Amino acid sequence: MLRIGFICLLIFLDVCHAQAQIVDHIDSSRILLDDPAYHFHYKKLIIPTVFIGYGVASLISPSLKELNSSTRYETREHITVGAVIDNYMQYAPAGAVYGLNIFGVKGKHNLKDRTMIYLTSQVYMGAMVIPTKRWVGEIRPDGSNTRSFPSGHTATAFSSAQFLFHEYRDNNFWLSISGYPLAAATGIYRIFNDRHWVGDVVAGAGIGILSTELAYWTYPMTSQLFNRKHHNSTTFISPYYQDHALGIQLAKVF
């Protein structure tokens, strides 16, 4: 419940902050065509492809399977299962984007646009993670179920870190990369908590990065769905919590 309240507070304060300022309304469609962040480039696929490829290989390669097992053995000797920090840390980089804007550290996009991009990245991520978990059916290290591959927590963490990177890399590079250590720590804790193998975490990192890249590449198209000049509409953004899952819902009334 603390996590829910914290994220609700961040979004509420960010909305109030945005409404309190005089903002120049710029036609963003003229800017999107020139910004490289929205352009597909094969080089941006290299890291997520390598990570996902490693994860897939870990499902069938004897040597990588052995690495999974030996890593689990070592962590079981020195780490006590039970930490819950990974449940919160996965959202920290995305929360930082909203928190920094509250305190006047401007990112790339305004509240509506960055929320649209982040939500889109989560849709892409879920579309990749959830079916893959069911299709692969890998048993978790603790034997609790067959939904180990890939790591959803790690995918969420790295999608958030990539989101922070894109929003701040033009203004403050060191700030923009600060989410990656948190994302990596999330994946490490998933291993420490005996919930995932190493390959699951690496694949999750690749999926998370890819999800956010897809969200930025498709933003020029998705933004048109919410910026039609000839329609009067209202957009509502609010967090929700249901069946032990935390998220943000967006509703548009025409």
UniProtKB/TrEMBL annotation:
Protein name per Swiss-Prot or TrEMBL: Phosphatase PAP2 family protein
Species in which this protein is naturally found: Sphingobacterium hotanense
Keywords in alphabetical order: Signal
Keyword Signal found: yes
Top-rank taxon: Bacteria
CDD domains (UniProt xref): PAP2_like_5
InterPro entries: PAP2/HPO, PAP2/HPO_sf
Signal found in the keyword field: yes
Gene3D superfamilies (UniProt xref): Phosphatidic acid phosphatase type 2/haloperoxidase (1.20.144.10)
SUPFAM superfamilies xref list: Acid phosphatase/Vanadium-dependent haloperoxidase (SSF48317)
N-terminal signal peptide: 1-20
Phosphatidic acid phosphatase type 2/haloperoxidase domain segment(s): 115-216
